[in-house]
Amino acid sequence: MQPTPEHHRILSTVGAWKVACKFYMQPGQPPLETEATDTVEALGPFWTLSRFEGSMMGQPFSGVTTLGYEPAQQRFVSTWVDTMMPHLWYFTGGFIEDGKVLELKGQAPSMGGEGTAPWRITHTFESPDTMTLRMFTTLPDGPEVMTMENTYTRMA
């Protein structure tokens, strides 16, 4: 199999990134702000593997993301695991907004504490060296809220 244009697109994120993080812990409250790094590596010509390193509420925090494109299903797929939660996050989706935003959707633990809820991630590619990741969830009473906003700046 040969890489598709979609594979080349995600491989453009390979490198080291400085991340300015905003975590929205409670709706209507100011975000918890911190800095992190994310190192994105190519895993062959089809996948990326990123290693996120930072802190959360004064504790070390690490996470790993996979991102790829499945040509047969014509969709992007992504997973996330981290040091604070025993849950594998799994998302699928595609590009929206004239190809500037990669939108991924999935089910993950509810912020209400029980069961799962819809989650949505957007990767906005502002330039080859700047991107923003936003994460949203639907609360048990219905509205969708942003839970995280990470601004990435390429270091190398």
- State the end-to-end distance: 29 Å
Mean pLDDT: 94
The largest sheet has its strands arranged as 1-2-3-4-5-6-7-8-9-10
Shape: globular
Low-pLDDT segments, ≥5 res: none
Order of helices and strands: HEEEEEEEEEE
DSSP strand (E) fraction?
Answer: over 45%
Sheet with most strands:
10 strands, antiparallel, barrel
Count the strands? 10
Kindly report the CATH topology.
Answer: Lipocalin
Quick overview:
The chain is mainly β.
What does this structure look like?
By secondary structure, the protein is mainly β. It has a single domain (5-154), classed as Lipocalin, CATH 2.40.128. It contains one helix and ten strands. It has one helix at residues 5-11, and strands at 15-23, 32-43, 47-56, 59-70, 75-82, 85-96, 101-109, 116-127, 130-138, 144-154. A ten-stranded antiparallel beta barrel has the order 1-2-3-4-5-6-7-8-9-10. The model has no long low-confidence stretch (mean pLDDT 94).
List the helices and strands and how they pair.
Layout: H1 5-11, E1 15-23, E2 32-43, E3 47-56, E4 59-70, E5 75-82, E6 85-96, E7 101-109, E8 116-127, E9 130-138, E10 144-154
Antiparallel strand pairs: 1-2, 1-10, 2-3, 3-4, 4-5, 5-6, 6-7, 7-8, 8-9, 9-10
